[in-house]
Design goal:
Structural class: alpha/beta
Distance between the termini: 39 Å
Order of helices and strands: EHEEHEEHEEEEEHEEEEH
Largest sheet: 14 strands, mixed
Strand content: over 45%
Helix content: 10-25%
CATH superfamily of the largest domain: Probable inorganic polyphosphate/atp-NAD kinase, domain 2
Bound molecules: NADP nicotinamide-adenine-dinucleotide phosphate
Number of strands: 14
CATH architecture of the largest domain: Sandwich
Radius of gyration: 20 Å
Length: 255
Amino acid sequence: MKYWIVSKEDEISAEIKKTLLEKINLEFTQENPDLVVVIGGDGTFISAVHQFPDAIFLGVHTGHLGFYANYTLETISNMIEDINHQSYQIEKIDVLECELNTCEQQIKTFAINEMTIIKPPKTLILNVNIDQQKLETFRGTGLCISTAYGSTAYNKSLFGAVVDPSLKAFQIAEIAGINSNQYRTLSSPLLLSQDRTVTLEVEQKEEVFLTIDHLSYHLKNFINATIKLCLGKISLAYPKGITFVERIKRTFLKE
Ligand code: NAP
């Protein structure tokens, strides 16, 4: 089994990396690693997932505990033992499969947290279709489509629901919808089942900004985007006994 480390550039992370390199009994290589240890926060985690989507991930949080990073400075020795004995649990995480079409190109990618579409400094007008049936025409800053894991990230700031990842669902939340009589939309976040396909389209080609997790695309001649759920694409390892309720409490609710 081969492993690799993706780490934040700070002193604590460098110290953890040094300890791991000394104590993990696996081959250390960037070439198709089976396992990737991420040292940092959820932000470092999502960027590592985009680099090595087929690996098993273990996250060490160097600040507070996060949603993806389940080990801390205090539990490093447990992590080393879990890695050397492969005694971690694995959760399969769903992602969004996104197809972005412009006049010139088609981009196929995936998002572990969310995809957003905006058009600063103007408002964006978008037709929102579900399973090829028109739901509404949205006008406002933009839309955020998130996974269950991503529901605690940008989506939560938009007052979207926090979703239990065992639910196979994804969610659309509005970013500052205007909601006049001309452009009336649902306004509330919309939770969709795994079988749905969302298409966002502009009436004529448009210049937009699209984000896929931490990545951004400036698309000059955007036409449409198709988004659906792809089940269990990412493998997240975590210590035995950590529950969904604990993850929510440790991130958002002070004891
Ligand atoms: P960043 O702007 O440096 O940090 C984003 C923050 O979101 C960090 O505190 C990060 O936690 C946290 N985060 C990331 N994924 C999360 C999750 N699934 N659940 C709970 N918190 C999460 O950007 P970045 O580090 O590159 O991360 C990109 C993410 O930022 C995007 O995917 C988006 O969700 C989020 N974002 C949020 C807003 C907003 O809430 N208004 C706006 C833009 C982007 P750590 O401190 O543990 O890294």
